Amino acid sequence: MTGEQRGSPTFPLLRLPLELRRYVYEYSLWSSRAPAADTIYSTVPCPLNIRLEARPSSLLFVSRETRHEAFAMIQGKNWPVHLHVTPAGVQFSTLAQTYFIVRKCLGLYGKIRHLVIEMWPSHPDRPVDAIIVWRHLRRLVIDLRDMAVLQQVTFRFADNEMATWTRDGKVPMLLANSDDEVNDFILIAELFGRVRAVSASFEFPYGLARGEATVRLHKEIGAIEAGIEGRIPIDDNLYNEKWPADAARQDADDHQRETALIIAGTKIARNKLIKTTHNGQIRKFSTGLTKPISKA
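Below the sequence we write its predicted structure tokens.
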């Protein structure tokens, strides 16, 4: 069935000059590098030992001509490869999968010129998402450490329209202990501190407020980046995820964090319920009507 038969006219893409078509291809590909917010928080979390696979760009399946032109354009680009870490799981972006097909290479971390690891925050109503992301990161670090040295790697704390890492400009403390100065950014950065790369950098959300805590954060992150790049020595014997004793200790800590986050999520749900209901009735909405809550 054609687009005209469905009621939506087909755009004559191939009638455009090649230069304009390349702009269309680039926009379509580059916009696919980030996951949609609704897919991040509406998808059932993936088991730690299973890697999600995004589909390559639909440009490869429109026609032979668009496929050939898109291939030629991507061959001339040195775009970074985005790896998404979300509550739903870990997967390369659609742009990355397309890049792998065009370059005829597998998604091997050691072969990627510039790897961007984008970490997405927990949903504001589901703090337990944070521990799910943390467990995916633990598994990812094991895979990255299997590579001798990565090339260029960027660790990005990404926000979207549904959730942000910061709260009122402050650094998050979902994973960190309340009586400890270490925040979630430092905790995650220290986890990646055992990875080795020629060049490493961390990027934080724009909503992070300036202040003493932010200055201290960047100072500690600078030391972690130097360790990843090998500019300062780091004792690898302090912690190793592959050692059963260390992994078991970390699992126990994660269980305590998960319990605390489940309790926090329960409080959020209870408070929202209290705001929505009153004396067994749903509060009045724009219709001016009230609907009693049935009692068992």
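The radius of gyration is 23 Å.
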